[in-house]
Every structure is written in C-alpha cells, then in structure tokens.
Amino acid sequence: MSETLPNPSAEDTAAPPSFWRRLIRTPLRDIIRGRINGRLDLNAKLAAAGLSAEAETTVRDVVKGTRLWRLEKIEVADELIAHFQDGQQTEADSETTVLDFGQPAVTAKLIRRAKQRNRSIAAKAFVWTRRGIAVLLLFYILLAVRFFMGSPKVTVDYVAAMNADARAVPVEDHAWPVYREAWISFGMAEHELRPLFPENMHHSGTPLRAKDPGWGEARAFLAAHRPLLDALREAASKPGLGLEVGFDRDFTERERLALFGPNNQLQITDLDTLSPSQRLAEESVVGVLLPHLGLLRKSARLLSVDIDLAVEQGDSERVVANIESLLGMADHSTETNTLINGLVGLSILRLTSDKLEDVLIEAPDLLADQQLQHLQNQLNATSPRSMVRYDGERLFMYDTLQRMYTDDGQGNGRITAEGLRFFWSSLNDFPNQGVEDPGELWRTVESAAMPASLLLVASRREMRDKYDQLMDDFRMNGALPLRDVSAANDPDFEMMSWSVRERTKYLLISQLLPSLHAVAKTVERTEGRLEGVQLGLACERYRRDHAVWPNELEALNPEYLSTLPVDRITGNPLRYAVTDGHPLIYSVGVDRDDDHGRPPTNENDEPRPEYAASWNQDYYPDDEGDWVLFPTNTFRD
Fold it and tell me: Global pTM?
C-alpha cells in the first residue's frame, strides 16, 4: 500500500491539475461517490500551501518515511502542512520552525507507529492477512525448490523378478517354442476362428457346439487343422511355459510374428526420443506386454471345440488329452506372477470344468472308468487359489514407488515431479504409445500445483508400509474361505472407509490397488465350480458301480471322494437331489435359503446361477435362488 510520491515539477505548479491527473489521484471510494477531487495529489497540496522550501522538503521526507497507505500519508501531509503554516504565521523565521520540528526520520517512525495503532480491526486483519500470504508464498517457493530438485532413482529391475519362474524352467521343458511355431504356422494372432465362433451365436466368445447350425463347417475346420491341435497338445504337456515377458523392444522377430502376426507389428519405441517421465513409464513394470495370454485363451477355446468333435466321434482318448491340455494351458498362463495371469488361468480352468461337465451329461458312457478316475485325480491336484498370485502386484507397486520417489538409501524418499507425470501417464495412456502433450497452459498449472504433493501425499516409506499392511491382510484372508473373512479385516472395505484426506495421502494405493475382494470372489466361484464337477465325476463312478445315483453325497466318501466339499457360502453340507434322472448339486446361495436348485435369473428371465455366488447378504439382498454347481450346462445354452 505504500508508494514513493513524485517530486514537484514546474508543470505541477504552473497550472491546475488536469481532469485525468485528478482522476488517478482520487481514492476509489470517492470515485464511486462521483467525487473527482484528486485529494491524493501531494504535489498539488504543497503547491497550494505556500510553504517554504525547507518546510516542503521536510513534509515530503516525513510522509515518505512513514511508509503508510496512501490515504494515511495524505492525512499526515495535511497535519504537517497545517503545522508549518501555523509556524510561519507566528515565527519571523520559518527556518526556525523547521529546525524545531526535529529529525524527519525519527518523526516519520513515531507517526507510523501511532497510525498503525489507530487502524481499525479490519485494516489490521488485512495487514496480517497480507503478511501471512507473503509468508505462505515464500514457504511454497521453498517447497517448490525442494520438490523440483528431487529426482527418482531406479535401482531395482523388477521385470527380471517377474521372469524368475520362467528362467527356472529347464530349456528342454519349455512349451513356448512349440506354441510359438504353431501360432506362426496357423497365424493365430490374426485368425478369428470364425467357423468355431460365428458372429451372433450365443454369448460373446462362446464356441459353436455340436448341436448348433454350422457344426459341419466347424467339423471340417478342425479336421483341416489337425496338425495345429496336435502341436497345441504337445505344448500344453510341457512342465513350464518358459517365456520371459518384457517390452516391445525385447521380442525376437519370431516371437513378434507369433504374438502379433505379420500385419499387426508394434512399432518399437525409441527411448532416446522420450521425455524423462515418458521413459519412466516405458521402462516400468506397467509397460510389460503379455500378448501370449490372449493367444493361450484362444488356443484353449480351440481345443474345447475339439472336445465336442471327439465326443461326437467317440474318441475318449482325445477327450482326455484335450482336457489335460486345457489344464496345462491354465498352468502355463500363470507362470508370470501377475494378477491378470492368474485370472486368465482361472478362465481356462472354468472352461475346462464346463467341457468336462458337458461330456458327463451328454456322453456319460464315453469315458472308461480309469479315465474318469484319472480326470478326477487331475482336478483334485488343481488349485484355483494357488493360480492367483499377488507377488507381481507387489513388484508393480514397488517399481512404481522407485519411479515416483527419491531414494535416501534407507527406504524412504519424497514424491517428485517426474514421478507424478509418470503416474498420471500410467493411468491414462499405454506406456509404449508415449504421453500426449497436454499443452503449455496445462503444464504451467500442473507444475505450479505439484509441490503441494509433498504435503499431501505420503512419503515413500509410509506408502510402502501401508501397501504391505493391506496386502498382508489380504494374504492372511486369502487362505480362508470368504465366509470366514471379516469385513473389518478386508482391504477393500478398509479403503471404502477412507476419507478424502486418506485417499489423497495414499494416492498410489487408492488408484492402483485392484479390487482384491472381487478377485477373491472369482477364486471362490472357480473353486465351487471345480468342486461341482468333481462331485459329478464321483457320482458317475458311483452310478456305474451301483446302477443308481447315490441317495446322498455322504455315500461318495471315502471310496469315490476322499473329502466332501461343503457349501462355500455357509460352510454347511451342499444340497443334493436327483432330478430328471440326473444328480443336482447346489449351494443355497447368498440368500442362505434353499430354493431347491432354482437359480436366480437376469432381466431377460435367463438362469444365472453365478448371481447367487456372493457372500455379503447386505449387498445382495434381492438375489434369491441357489448357486447350482452341477450340472450347469443347461444354463449355458
């Protein structure tokens, strides 16, 4: 509010101030009232006062030295002019009045203190607010300096850690070279398998079945590609996949041809053309490509259709070989320890269960007793829960931390500008496509706001500790059936209760942690589905030995099934009945009410048994019906 007042000039004293001069020297409050009085014009006041040169100089020095607001300075000037005018009227020598006045600097300091003491509360509040803003601004500038001086330091190759299991597979046990050559020869990456998966047929991705129109074309397609099916079965029989995952630049030419096809090659990213944040994203775990998962699923679906053809042809050995191959593909897909790998493995395992059930229902006498026993042993040795691993999720988070934070050498660090840009690009863009330029204005706003993250976002150690706590809780819960997991110990429910402050503090976790409860539910549903098929196999073996279905599931233990599964929702025995000449095995479902094997339905009144496969009754109060575990093939038509 203080200002340096101008010295007088000849023009100032020679003529009255112009309108514009009076306007710019009029307080805003007076202008609003329509008064253009120019009362802030000190030069005009002094010219009209007629003071001596010594007195005028003293007035100017005192007014300037007070460093007050403009209106306060004018008030001081008016008082000083009046004082010197009185002195000139009484004193013969005006110089004496100036000498008696004292030192201008001392007088200005005393006047400043007095004026400040007499200011209103609002004026004082304004002063302190202004000072506070200045202090905050200075603090933020220092914070920004500290923030932009930080830089992430990547020290651990977590991609190598992801490939540890693949590297441990002996070369002679690698399935990947067999898959690779089979996929190249067939063009699997670009082949739509249209004869087996015609458009507008059933649900999306559902293969053609023997009773569907167009089955003759599918049969011919499979017969023409018998070498491909043999190669897939050979690959699936190998103990390990042996494929090391990586980035677009890490694949050999043969691998590229197998995974993407000749007409869909990815452009290799030139790292030298990327900004620091783009390079952080490009070389991170989030940028690792997993194209083989989609091809494994496609291969599994191809073999699943061949099961139907083998059933039609009465080829029980090929049925067993294909089912064993599906189990092998499910295992191969989980070699890399990421969550998505495990979910793909579960999807192949559910497909395996569906096809084995189809065989039991539609061709119950096809498989020999020893084949039934063999397949049951294969399923008993399969654990959906062990397929889904979370080590890769930890690697993903740890890699993200090292790319976002500084490293003090002791496990701690602070968030960085490069790290935040990498983080947002990871959420919004595929790393190998680079990060779009948001524009100069947005970059300016972003850069100005970023330093606040030092105050709002947790430190590196805090972020990791919180993440580890959530993952450890989930690992502990993951060993339990969902029915025994308390919501109080569930990471998903804990995060749902977080405040905005906590979500901001643990930004990486709230944005990157997957829904672990949803994953656990998928695992439980797959386990229940697998148990249903195992019980179906045991019931079929019992029927062959006794010519009737068992009266109760307890009759299967221990000769046909060493351990009887329980209802995964309630923990009680599963419900069992013989309906329409076939066994019916089901869980009472989320409503805990026995609906005698009647499943829930969707909006089109279609049976959907999986709707009842939920564990929180409060969240799913309307899902009346049972979770049917065997048979489900009538619900998949």
Answer: 0.81
